[in-house]
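Sequence of UDP-glucose 4-epimerase (Nitratireductor arenosus).
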Amino acid sequence: MKILLTGGAGYVGSHVAKVLLEFGHGVAVLDNLATGHMRTISKLAELGKRNFSFFEADICATDHLEQIFRQYEPDAIVHMAGLKLVEESFERPEAYFRCNVVGTASLLSAASACRCKRVIYSSTAAVYGASERCPFREDLPPSPSSPYGWTKALAERLVRKWGETGYQARTAIVLRYFNPCGHDRFFDNPLQIEDSGGNSLADAMVRVATGLESHLEIYGNTYPTADGTCRRDFVHIRDIAEAHLRAVAFTETAAPSFDIFNLGSGKDTSVLEFLEAFHEATGLRVPFSFVPPRKGDLAVSRADVERAAMRMKWVPRYDIHGICQAIRPRGHSVRPAPFATPPRTLVRRNHRERVKG
Ligand SMILES: O=c1ccn([C@@H]2O[C@H](COP(=O)(O)OP(=O)(O)O[C@H]3O[C@H](CO)[C@H](O)[C@H](O)[C@H]3O)[C@@H](O)[C@H]2O)c(=O)[nH]1
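Predicted 3D structure, token representation.
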């Protein structure tokens, strides 16, 4: 199948592109390189050869998109381009609205103009927000707790409306990612963190483990969880990427429809447990201190993954140990811990009030 992948130069997008190429699909990445990297595109081009193309374009430029769609004639679109930093979305809500909502509308409009009938949209667990019914099931009403989450929920609505335009025999799928972690070593990413800097927990842990930062700041230790730290559903990036293969296959076989699938491991792990699992898997200790909670963070986030298993036949393969192996920085194989407890002298003082040292 010929698949047009927006945002394919980014973290999740590049891993999805690689898996699609490995399984024989034709892939055209469309990316404005605002946060993605040309180095990633070169690696994909090396792998995909004639099966791979790249278009530098912005999803908000509908005319340009139509031109590209007419040239490439995709069988399906995987739409991953977007802004994704929860904290930043409080500071720049308009930018998030423009990119995530207007950009999606523009993409769907170009897809309609070129009669493409399949769209797979990358969404997020952030649409569940403060919903109290964890594990989150796809039929829960959206209740985002950040502008980021709202823009993704709105974009989902657009995708749904587009898919439900029944007489066009379209299929639209929304995939809600929980906490993707890890990197494929194929991408020659020296630190194994996101090229755009990366502010996820895993990226922050790697920066500490490699000495770039002295210690990890854990946002809050008074949440209503067993150890007081947030619990997240960490899921291996390869599992996430393979779910897109399933989704593409699903759009081929399913009757024209709209569907939503959670992509998580179905298990939650606390921040402290994650640090411990990282130590067990890699021998690397991550010194930490507690700082006040971060705006917009939920206490617990966990996916109900039944629907993806039943309908798409997707089941995640990696456990927390495998995930920790995949976030291990380059040059660090399994080895004994360099030190057993966080050295207090390394704890940097900053303007933030410490909850606990
Ligand atoms: O330096 C850090 C970084 C993170 N955390 C904590 O680690 C957990 C995970 O944080 P991430 O930033 O890695 O992930 P989030 O759960 O906040 O957000 C992720 O999941 C969201 C959906 O819930 C969105 O999809 C978002 O884009 C994606 O990064 C949170 O409790 C956070 O407070 C820290 O304590 N210190």
